[in-house]
Amino acid sequence: MRVHTGVHTVFLLVLLAAAPAGAKVSAEEAARLGKDLTPVGAERAGNGDGSIPAWTGGLTTSPPCYKGEGSRYCDPYPQDQPLFTITAANAAQYRDQLSAGQLAMLEKFDTYKINVYETRRTAAFPDFVYEATARNAVNATLEFEGESLKNAILGFPFPIPKSGQEVVWNHKLRYRGVGGARWNNQAAVTPSGAFTLVEITEDVKFPYAARDATPESIDNIIIYFLQIVRAPPRLAGQITLVHETMDQVREPRRAWQYSPGQRRIRRAPNVAYDNPSTASDGLRTNDQLDAYNGATDRYTWKLIGKKEMFVPANSYKLHSDEYRYRDIILKGHINQDLTRYERRRVWVVEANLRPRTSHMFKRRVFYVEEDSWGIVLVDLYDNRDQLWRWQEMHTFQAYDKPFIAPPAMETAYDLQSGRYIAYSMNNEAPETIERDFPISYFDPANVTKQTFK
């Protein structure tokens, strides 16, 4: 994944790697998993005033409205109504539970609001993920300044984190099944609210998540990713292929791109970091997909701690196929009447740009929900250290799996220009399905065959 420029190269990483950047915990600490901690490391108990309940196993039963694999994930809580709404008028009352980006949105747009619902701790994973997480807790380490993950497989590598990088690795390797096929439709929205929909399919395989996987058997690849632009016609046929590595010192990310005009697939080391992502009109970088992906070597990472915040959760309504994209995508921001926020405990991680490296974001603050290890909010700062952009992940539980499904939507707002991009949408497209692709499907020699499938 690394572009080998400047002094921050793999060679330098090796020289600096005198000790692990992250280390396994003791057996005594790990014994807390499944007791006062959930099997993935969240606090099992609720909070003092009861606004966050205890975790009791999550949502693992499908509601009557769900019709099975391939059908739309429906809302298991249709009767829920907002407990209260945060607006610019009362934002000061909740300042400590909001991110800088949320406060900026409330200040910038009179129409922006945050509807807060009852907290329902729905996150759950299969038992074999819990078992693997317990093994990882006493075995997994990060080496070479955190770019090389060792002795972890299948489960969350660091359920009791000691560093910011460990939290980010938990996000990158959170369990999402063995693979899947989804539509990731996106819209780059102008200040007037105009947009052109870009239709994208994405196929993914998670070798790390296979039940019979070992650190040796996956051949250093944790994710295979194939993205194809389907519409509009001027962009259709563009392909991006990524093989994401677990030990990025041993081998950086492999990436390729195919352009219909050139009719050939080429290596693409620029598919990383702050290079613009596919058809994003400059509103999203490559490493902003899935809130954050890829190498962590351009930043120093600080684990600030844990706090209670109002964050997107159980976003079934936003995911509904009852709404068209025009119902969702509005001037200035998405339709906040369709969103759901809950009071959750989140890990706060701050990333600061390393000296003599480059990135358009000087500083990033990540908010990582404790039950799922998913990043849900990101504050993004420019080179003057001024708040510039802001991200949200609107997630929900795939109750029939169980795991947290691909997001109903991701948003990245430019607070200075008034523009934003909404992506990971499939309201007017087929539902995401779990699928176990063969590795050969992601062979660079074969991917162009997928364009017209």
TrEMBL record:
Superkingdom: Bacteria
UniProt signal peptide: 1-23
Keyword Kinase on entry: no
Record-linked Pfam families: DUF1329
Alphabetized UniProt keyword annotations: Signal
Keyword RNA-binding applies: no
Protein name: DUF1329 domain-containing protein
Species annotation: Sinimarinibacterium thermocellulolyticum
